[in-house]
Amino acid sequence: MRIIRDYTYVNDADKGASVAIGNFDGVHLGHQSVIELARKAGAAANAPLGILTFEPHPRQYFAPKAPAFRLMSPEARAHRLEKLGVKRLYELAFNATLSALTPEEFARNVIKDGLGLKHVVIGADFCFGKDRAGTAESLIEFGQQMGFGVTIAELLTSTTGQVSSTAIRNALTEGRPRDAASMLGHWHRFEGPVITGEQRGRDLGFPTANMSIDGLHLPKLGVYAVEADILTGPHKGSYIGAASLGTRPMFGENKPNLETFIFDFKGDIYGETISIALVDYLRPEENFDSLEALITQMNADCAKARTIMSQL
Questions:
Q1: C-alpha distances in Å from residue 93, one per residue of 4, 63, 129, 189
Q2: How many CA atoms lie within 13 A of 8 on its CB side?
Q3: What is the DSSP string of 126-194?
Q4: What domains can you pick out in the chain, each with its CATH number?
Q5: 208 phi, psi to nearest 5 deg
Q6: Which residues are marked as active site?
Q7: For the segment 184-230, what is each residue's pLDDT rounded down to a tens digit?
Q8: For the chain, what percent of residues have pLDDT higher than 90?
Q9: Whole-model pTM?
Q10: What span, in angstroms and rounded, lies between the C-alpha atoms of 97 and 107?
Q11: What is the mean pLDDT of residues 92-107?
């Protein structure tokens, strides 16, 4: 998959894709249905499958001090899209210049002239251009004028209601990772490098792989049964474990992070990229009376997580 970040400097070989447009936070089932329509349109037009998205997320750009809401980092999103067969990821810089384009300028400067797209697929609620003045209907009109096809995808619903990033965030906030997964079409994951922690877990007999979760939506704090994929280095592979998502209340006030104890694993993975999937919520964070009580509970957590993961 090729990543293109500037629509004003695009090689001819990277133009002419059939794309789905959106932010694709989480790459959930609704997003996947839009991507599938772009795939089919591309096959009919002999065009590669592409995604047109923006970085930072426009919501971050306009409200940089708002609470973190993203389900995925840009890197995790790119990895998920590549798994779906995306060949061109147009990850455009969302800045003052791009946000100031009128709907017609966006259609002409970005879609037609900049990227030379053959077909675009959008959701029924898609808005674009300055002040979000452009609608799905107006993009169809611009496509007819400028020579690119447009398909409007209907919003996807599930047994729990409309599939959306908001609904997924709500499920995670309430400690329902399986409900989130039913809308995502995959486990909700945190992806990033293993960082150096305070090594308390090692001292307690539970060495953990620590990850920063800065800038991402914070699920319900507590202990989870997890799938742990090591993506780089000599220990690449899929494992299972138990993870603590939280502030470690027994050890003072701390910034939230994710600490994963990988079962039956020995090896140095500092600096390697890992992906941790939240499978089941086990319990909330607790402040124990003693380290012995904490270790007893951690043993119980691990036993429960092993049972859960063995039943998948």
A1: 10, 16, 14, 25
A2: 3
A3: -EESGGG-EEHHHHHHHHHHHT-EEEEEPPPEETTEE--HHHHHHHHHTT-HHHHHHHHSS-EEEEEE-
A4: 2-155 (3.40.50.620), 177-310 (2.40.30.30)
A5: -120, 155
A6: 259
A7: 999 999 999 999 876 666 666 788 999 999 999 999 999 999 999 99
A8: 84
A9: 0.90
A10: 14
A11: 96
